[in-house]
Amino acid sequence: MKNATAFQEKTLTQIDTKWRFVHWRSAILYLLPSMILFSVFLFYPLGKTLYLSFFLTDQQGVANVFVGWENYQYILQAESFHKSIKATLLFVLYTVPTGILISLFLALLANEKLKGVGFFRTIYSSTMGVSVAASAVVWLFIFHPSMGILNQLIASVGGTSIDWLLHPDWALVSVAVTTIWMNIGFSFLIILGGLQNVDEHLYESAKISGAGYFYQLRRITIPMLSPTLFFVVTVSLINAFQTFGQVDILTQGGPSESTNLIVYSIYREAFVNYQFGTASAQSIFLFLCILIVTILQFKFGERKVHYQ
Amino acid sequence: MRVFRPIITYVLLIITAIIVFFPLVYAFFISFMSGSELLQGKFIPESFHLDNYKKAFERLPLAHYLWNSFFISTVVMLGQLLVSALAAFAFVFIPFKGRNIVFFIFISTMMIPWEATMIPNFITIQQLDWINSYQGLTIPFFAIAFGTFLLRQHFLTIPKELKEASDIAGLRSFKFFWKVVIPYSRTSFVTLGAYGFLTTWNMYLWPLLVTNNDDVRPVQIGLKQLQTQEMATDWGVVMAGVIIVIIPTLILLFLGQKQLQKGLAQGALK
Amino acid sequence: MKKFLLILLTICFAMLITACSNDADGQEVDEESNESEETNETTETEEETTEEASDEKVEAVFWHAMSGGGQESIEAIVDNFNQSQNDYTIIPEFQGSYEEALTKYRSVGGTEDAPAIIQTFEVGTKYMIDSGFIEPVQSFIDEEGYDVSQLEENILNYYTVDDQLYSMPFNSSTPVMLYNKDAFKEAGLDPENPPQTFTEIKEAAEKLTVKDGDNTERYGFSLLNYGWFIEELIATQGGHFVNNDNGRSEAATEAVFNGEEGLRIFELMDEMNKAGTYGNFGSNWDDIRAAFQTENTAMYLDSSAGVASTIENAPFEVGVAYIPYSEEAERNGVIIGGASLWMSNGIDPEKQQAAWEFMKFLQSAESQAKWHIDTGYFAINPSAYEEDIVKERWKEFPQLKVTVDQLQETKPSYATQGALISVFPEARQQVVTAMENVLQGTDPKEALDKAAEETNRVIEQANRANQ
Questions:
Q1: Which residue has the higher pLDDT, A240 or C55?
Q2: Residue of C nearest to B129 (CA)
Q3: Residues A283, B115: C-beta atoms closer than 8 Å
Q4: Boundaries of domain holding B153
Q5: Between A124, A126, A286, which is nearest B113 by CB?
Q6: Is C1 within the bounds of a domain?
Q7: Residues B80-110: pLDDT tens digits?
């Protein structure tokens, strides 16, 4: 082994250029499938979207009037787009922290060494197997103003029924609840996996020194779990920014545009109103937002993450 | 304290499980109800008859849709595994120049919202003449940054010595990839596979756009077809559709849950 | 436990599939003629048709947006057509909502891949005409001397632009007001004499509203948050939606729905909402119907296509009335809603011929009678109302006739002909937002003006892009 490394080091400089070429060639071979697919189905369309964002399109969707920054200027001053941004940010705020806290709580519960806990794990992770279309339809009925179970429960205890999907303030909450429910399965599975990777010895020594449950949670579990949590936060954030199906089925962006999340707004602008120009400008805006958030998160979030 | 803790945990476990599972149970019950039972706001149906299921199957070729979904999801799963594994291998074992930049570009693709690229993609698919074909529903999804990322994280845990040993043994890098890396990372492959299968099974908007007839249409579109716009929706039938759609994925999830949880966790760790 | 669950699920699922497919097969043998059979065989039909292609049958694809019961009925009618002659085969294909179907059509329009027939909603009319992808059905009518006078005039009016009938009307509906007769009796109102004007509506709604503390058990009146109803309520007062005679004499350049007619409606909504007699049940058709059927609202506007099932399901007696108008205006009647069938150009002339033959078949009294009964949409061909099945149906539900009367009493004018705008879907959205804003307390004038302003912007942009 030693000889081999020594040999490698010696020759490395001599045939450095040759190796570089070999590495390049094989790297490209391995990366080629991904690169082709990304180029065709992601980068090219993204470029096309960028291009379209500077045009007005006619009824066939052909970009035929160059308008420069007009589409951007318009969306940045349009009230409905402001509403859309506000709704998206609120939505992220409602869903990401709550969803992760709930999943963490469930994972902690399901990580206890008790009989039959596997059954509960199955239940908690089940929502991952339910498609967006299916879960939104189910929740649509749960929120139903007159036949839905929620308002019936409220009525049976004598309360005033709530306009779940009909009141601008409640509608976003309702969509958020649906989303949190849908995402629980995935977040739960990841966090549970993370919990099981935490070194048992840490807890044992903590127990010996007489630390309580919450002390252990704060000082051992959370720090050791931080890489997992970081991952979950990243994925949840990106998902929350890209929410579409639930909105389409539950509220179609209403009432009063209160649930017109940005991706839905893009969809509506492009496929209902045929304004590819403004839709593209919104897409680019969304892309930049997600990019910035992710970079910020990696920059600041990652410092606090504790790696094993 | 010692005695109470398990009891409290069990109580919490049961309550939360009921809440989490409730929507599915509710959908299950509704799928057996008639229109008037629904209007009366019942929770438990009068009888468990299969009328709504029959209607759902009569209205649409659901069995055919289920097969399409199954086939598409399997193909996408395999495609993703292959493409992502190749890319992840390059990122871990081939020290080429600019590796970090390329990796960053890969990861950044996770941030491109799919809807933002949908219009041009739709036109591409059409020009390729892939409308109404399995290709149009599968190939665009083969490359997935999340998969590359997940596998890369796992490949990083493969001891460097293994690679060195194989270099010395004169194994070509592809052989090393095939004989050593893949068997070593079985868990993450299962994880990514299950993840890919589930997400593909759940696709909704894209299949709607690129299919014009029943030939290759997946089952999620069937759910949409059971609902109506201007005329009255038959909720019982719709819920029967929901149950039909989710059962295969639930089964898969129960089967692969352990693997999935392990593998996803590894992906999350650096 | 997990294993047990798993096995249980698998078994259930397996049983379900086998049970259902068996049942379906069994029925096909029993039922000779129609619907359920067709839907089960959609895929088979396609296979068959490819085989039969060698027999020189011309295949024409028909894109539609009917789901649920409408899909069943449409496929049954297509099946009848395919069996009625030996030259053509129509292949029905579901394309999602009208919007989604149109999106796809935009990309294939004008090419060989375009479907021979596409069903498009009424607000897409202007877009289709301008697209250049379609062949006006008028050219076939002229060529053959087909007599369109047998068809319902008020429906034809909508799709006739510059004296040309562009598309063949198909599923057509109009709004009507449904009310709970039992609640009327209970509130001391005459169930045979429903309110006709805005003021009468307001007064009746006050009597019909039932409160229990803070909780409103029953609202007097409700509207679905859907632009179509506002369009109709403006038209019935003789008002226009956009300028240049509703865009019929020249391309519209400006929205005028914020004029006095529109404002009256919004003010009515606002006043009733503030008085607590107006129930808001959102923008989903099913929700408002459920609210009516569970007696959460006593009066509401619905599409004529939804009337029959509402009457059937409601546990009380349902009345059907004309939509209300303002006492400051006259009653003009209603605009036709729904969708029509368009023929593509740039495709094989034989396919066009197939499409045309199918359209004619659809207009037959027999097909229309079936369609009317299955779906509640109007019969385009009034002689369908003479068919026995329709008569029987009307005997069962005499209220259905009101919908037809209202349409036939409509005074033809630019107002009731309906607006033509290429950006109609967006205009509708703006109106819905305005409705929702008013219900949240925004001033009616302000809400309407804002919607008009936004609509003007998109009209202007569309005109710029399409020069």
A1: A240
A2: C113
A3: yes
A4: 60-268
A5: A286
A6: no
A7: 999 999 999 888 888 888 888 888 888 878 7
pLDDT digits (tens, 9 = 90+) for B206-241: 888 888 778 888 988 888 777 766 666 788 888 999
- Region A200-209: mean pLDDT is 81
Q: Do residue C96 and residue B208 have CB atoms under 8 angstroms apart?
A: yes
Give CA–CA dist A273/A278, Å, rounded.
10
Same-domain status, A237 and A98: yes
Average pLDDT over residues A43-59: 87
CA distance C88 to chain B (A): 19
Per the structure, the complete domain to which residue A6 belongs is given by 2-38
B111 contact partners, CB below 8 Å, separation of at least 6: A238, A287, A290, A291, A294
Measured between CA atoms, the residue of chain C closest to residue A70 is: C461
| Contact flag A119-C436 (C-beta cutoff 8 Å) | no
pTM > 0.90: no
Residues C314, C345 within the same domain: no
Flag if B61 and C40 touch (Cβ within 8 Å): yes
Contacts of A272 in chain C (CB under 8 A): 99, 425-426, 429
- Whether the CB-CB separation of C306 and C250 falls below 8 Å is answered with no
Inter-chain CB proximity C305 and B230 less than 8 Å: yes
Instruction: Give the residue ranges of DSSP H helices in C58-151.
Output: 68-84, 98-108, 125-131, 137-144
How close, in Å, is residue C206 to chain B by CA atoms? 25
For the cut 60, the answer to whether the pLDDT of residue C28 exceeds it is no
How large is the ipTM? 0.83
Token representation of residue B161: 């010595």
Question: Is B156 inside a domain boundary?
Answer: yes
Neighbours of C392 (CB within 10 A): 11
Within 13 Å and on the Cβ side, how many CA atoms surround A202? 18
**Parent domain of C74:** 58-173+337-396
Q: How confident is the model at residue B265 (pLDDT cuts 50, 70, 90)?
A: low
CA distance A237 to A294: 9
Give tens-digit pLDDT for B21-47.
999 999 999 999 887 787 777 788 888
Alpha-carbon gap, residue C196 to C216, rounded angstroms: 24
Residue A126 and residue A241 in one domain: yes
Instruction: Check whether residue C284 and residue C375 sit in a common domain.
Output: no
- For the residues B247-263, what does the mean pLDDT come to? 79
C-beta atoms of B113 and A227 within 8 A: no
Q: Does the distance separating the beta carbons of B38 and A132 come in below 8 Å?
A: no
Q: What is the DSSP string of C365-434?
A: HHHHHHHHHHH-PPPSSGGGGGSHHHHHHHHH-TTHHHHHHHHHTPPPSHHHH----TTHHHHHHHHHHH
Q: Is C423 on the interface with A (CB under 8 A)?
A: yes
Tally of structural domains, chain A: 2
> Do C243 and C350 fall within a single domain?
no
What is residue A13's predicted lDDT score, i.e. its pLDDT? 54
Say whether pLDDT at A1 is over 50: no
**Chain A hits for B159, Cβ within 8 Å:** none
Note whether B117 and A46 are within 8 A (CB). Answer: yes
Same domain, A20 and A109: no
Return the pLDDT at A204. 82
Q: What's the average model confidence in pLDDT over C238-244? A: 94
Are residues A209 and A87 located together in one domain of the fold?
A: yes
Mean pLDDT of C41-59: 53
pLDDT in tens, C428-456: 989 999 999 999 899 999 999 999 999 99
Chain B nearest C-alpha distance from A172 (Å): 19
Nearest Cα residue in chain A from C461: A56
Cβ neighbours around B63 below 10 Å, total: 18
**Which chain B residue shows the shortest CA-CA distance from C104?**
B209
Sign of CA dihedral C3, C9, C10, C12: positive
> Residue B264 — very low, low, confident or very high, per pLDDT cuts 50/70/90?
low
Neighbours of chain C (3+ CB pairs under 8 A): A, B
Name which of B65, B119, B192, B210 to mutate to probe chain A: the one with the most chain A Cβ atoms within 10 A of its Cβ. B119
* Domain assignment of residue C49, yes or no: no
To the nearest whole Å, the CA of C120 is away from the closest chain B CA by 14
Contacts of A276 in chain B (CB under 8 A): 119
